[in-house]
Amino acid sequence: MNCEYFGKCGSCTIHDIGYEGQLDLKIQREKERFSNFTDIDFDIVRGDEQNFRNRAEFKIWKNFDEDDNATLSYAMTSVDKNVLEINSCQIVSVDIQKLMPKLLEEIQKDKILSFKLFAIEFLNSTTNDMLVTLIYHRKLEEDWNTLALELSDKFNIKIIGRSRKQKVILENDYINEKLSINNSTYNFRYIEGGFTQPNTKVNIGMIEWVLNNIKDSSKDLCELYCGGGNFTIPLSSKFRKVLATEISKTSIKSAKVNCELNNNTKIEFIRMSAEEFVEALEEKRVFSRLKDINLKDYDFDSIFVDPPRAGLDDTTRALVKDFDQIIYVSCNPETLHRDLEELTKTHTIENFALFDQFSYTHHIESGLILKKI
Q1: Given pLDDT bands bounded at 50, 70 and 90, which one contains residue 241?
Q2: Would you list the domain boundaries of the chain?
Q3: Which is catalytic among the residues 30, 246, 276, 365?
Q4: What residues contact 25, with CB distance under 8 A and at least 6 apart?
Q5: 212: which residues sit within 8 A by CB, 6+ positions away?
Q6: pTM, rounded to two decimals
Q7: Fewer CB atoms inside 10 A, N or C side of the chain?
Q8: Alpha-carbon torsion 129, 134, 135, 141, what sign?
Q9: 94-108 and 142-155 helices cross at what angle (nearest 10)?
Q10: Contact 51, 3 (CB under 8 A)
């Protein structure tokens, strides 16, 4: 990938050794990091060299001429922490890349649409569904709604307006996605403001890697940090039943909708933190959210965790060690390494993968399957 902003934009931090070079750098770094736990070969789920992000956010920067007329541009944070104006981005999806200049040109034509606009977010699916969120430093009135609807119709996109304590939904606040995973099609609804995986190709590769490295079970799966059911729904095909938890109201709402879209009756989603679930499982607290669910009906042999960057807390780490099989997807190799100091006392690493979701950055995600010793 050739980008005119390499070395200037703070987003792509590894830009001078090409895609293969940056991937090899990360692979060797992680092999060294985890060498005290395993010497097995890492499976690698590669990203694309460009146009791989289906979710992106850009600042809006204004320059004024001598007559005080504003010219809008997209902006990123530069390597020296200043504002860098850009007119294109090579890492976003082709649909987002094509829309960016056309959308900004139309917004700039109208003072109501452009007044105090400070950011634009894009959310795109492989089904060509596009949601654009325009974020303002002012209250949005009815005249904004009318003009934004015209913009929506012109580009065949969904538009949301946001400002402090205000969210204006013109059509709906989600996009629809279809993922082909191991020759099966799964339907998802991605809600604005909820977490979604930004790299669709690698996301599919992550799910397939897990599915291809675990066996069918006659028992049940417990999942913590389930988000909108991205892993939960495909993985349910491997188990008798699934009980999945998540703290975010938005994500749980999305997960339940996604379950319905796939006609899946094997999963129960509960809104609670991992720590609360441990208390419920150990019968230390009674939760009204579990009034229709009997935890004793489940016969778990596997647990799936995809925690935030902080990794597992002490309580959850202790719980995870009780399961025969641990499936651990990590977005932070440093906290994963810390957690493995404990988990490898009771489990052995059978499979290890690296997922290159964020090409040209130092970031890489990991997947492990551990079995009880």
Answers
A1: very high
A2: 18-49+198-372, 55-174
A3: 365
A4: 14, 17
A5: 182
A6: 0.94
A7: C
A8: negative
A9: 140
A10: no
pLDDT digits (tens, 9 = 90+) for 107-119: 999 999 999 999 9
Rounded CA separation 118/134 (Å): 8
Q: How far is CA 353 from CA 84, 208, 263, 350, in A?
A: 35, 12, 30, 10
Catalytic residue among 9, 89, 222, 331: 331
pLDDT in tens, 57-91: 999 999 887 777 789 999 999 999 999 999 999 99
Q: Could you give the CA distance from residue 26 to residue 197 in angstroms, rounded to a whole number?
A: 20
| Residue 260 annotated as catalytic | no
Q: Which of 111, 102, 113, 103 is nearest to 147 (CA)?
A: 113
Alpha-carbon distance 212 to 147, whole Å?
Answer: 49
Please report the pLDDT score of residue 275 as a whole number. 87
Is 226 labeled as catalytic in the residue annotation? no
Residue-wise pLDDT tens digits, 326-335: 999 999 999 9
| CATH match for 55-174 among 3.40.50.460, 1.10.10.10, 1.10.3370.10, 2.40.50.1070 | 2.40.50.1070
